[in-house]
Amino acid sequence: MAAQQILLALAGNPALPPEHVDQIIADGDAAVLTALAEEQQLTPRQVDALAATGHRDVLERLIISEQLAIGRIPPGDPWLALAAVKRADRPDDLLRSLASSPDAAVRDALGRSAYDRTDIAEALADDADCSLAAHAAGNWDLPEHLALRLAARTEACVRVAVAASRHAPAPLLAELIGHGGAPAMRPCPHRPDAPAALHELRVSAAGNPATPLDAVEPFTTHPDPRTALALAARTDLPAATYDRLTTLGDSQVTVRVAINWAAPPDLLRLLFDADAGQWRGAVLANPRTPLDLLVRHSREGGSPNTAFHPDTDEVRALAAHADPRVRLVAAASHRLSDDIRTALVVDPDLDVARQALRAALSGTQIRASVARHGPAVFSEIAGHPSCPPDLLLVIATHPQAPAAAVTDVAWNEASPPAAVAACLRDPANAVYAAGNPATPPDILLDLAGHSDPAVVVEVARNRGLPPQVCRLLLDAATGGAL
């Protein structure tokens, strides 16, 4: 096994004792040192040692993690300065300096941070390179004044980007989809074809939920395929428009309508049976598929998707139905009241009980289900975060427990030491126990000498790594004993 695998795992492990960092610095390569700089809280002396290596990736991580003082960033290196743009202690002129860099690649790299940084978007909004200004239009919280400022630029690539912004003012989006904005849009190096650029702008605006519906409607009568695809994702169209979109004969458009939660129920019913069931999978994936369709699907042997279905009253009624395939539809919901969930986890039908167990549960509900169904529900509860530790031990030691359920116990952090030890009767579970912070120190010590390199690496990554096991792995890796 390569020692680097162990060192990388240790360097990225928050459980690494601080006193072991020096040893890794002395023996680690650039990748290992980068992991240290990114994941560990270093002493000033250790920061000095890492910075002295001169590795750019290491320096970048030290800067990003704010462990290298801002004044120690090598001057005249815009690429390292970029690593400091999100630091609160950056110099006031840093953004201005980077935004005015003569290197377009530097400005482009800065622009890729504009999506979640309004100050960076502001700094790039007037860039001579329109493609960089377009980065600013993608800001996730684009303020109105900046949207208007960007839309005043005439380059096509900037206008297209503004048209896609969900934070752009509605009147501006209506103007853009109508005639491209004012002053007149012009081609640019990135959108050299004027008609194609206008079409792309309209497609972007048509699919933008912030664009007013009355401005979009003129484009819904005879939409081309790209516009139709954009429209099909909107959730505010009239029912007749969704109907019309599905008659275009474009499979991508029809699928997008079928999964759109705003699609009319009657249209979904029609699509469910249309074209020999071609759209049925998409309709069933819709979070608001009519419950009668889900009941049909369940009675035909399918798995219903009612996880977050909004019709909670109807779902509640289904939970009391005499047909277990109907109760199964209710059991799949994650919005059931506690009393309904309690009843379903002990349902006499095993499939219903198993389905009901795949949600948020209390330990009491899990116990009740096991008391009713025994090992038949072990697979559903073994990995559940609320499964009581004593039940995890029962699963790990039960002769009828499925192998997959025992594996789930091996990585479940609620497992008691005896359960983890029992899981190791199957050698395949060693890798899962090795990464489980609940695994006892003595077992981790044994696993640290395992013949499978994957197991040893998982031990090194373990967030509960005991200091003595860490020392063993570190000495082996740096001393060449691996």
Describe the structure.
56% of the residues lie in helices and 0% in strands. The chain contains 34 helices and no strands. Helix 1 packs parallel to helix 3 and helix 10 runs parallel beside helix 12. The longest helix is centred in the middle third of the chain and has 13 residues.
Quick structural summary:
With 482 residues, this protein is mostly helical. It has helices at 3-11, 21-27, 30-39, 44-51, 56-64, 78-82, 94-99, 104-111, 118-124, 130-137, 144-151, 156-163, 170-179, 194-206, 213-216, 225-231, 239-246, 251-258, 265-273, 280-285, 291-299, 312-318, 324-331, 338-345, 350-356, 363-373, 378-381, 389-397, 403-411, 417-423, 430-434, 441-447, 453-461, 467-478. The model has no long low-confidence stretch (mean pLDDT 94).
Please tell me how large the radius of gyration is: 29 Å
- Low-confidence stretches are none
**Structural class designation:** mainly alpha
Put simply, the count of helices is: 34
Largest sheet: none
Give the helix proportion (percent range). 55-70%
Which range does the strand content fall in? under 5%
Average predicted confidence as pLDDT: 94
What is the strand tally? 0
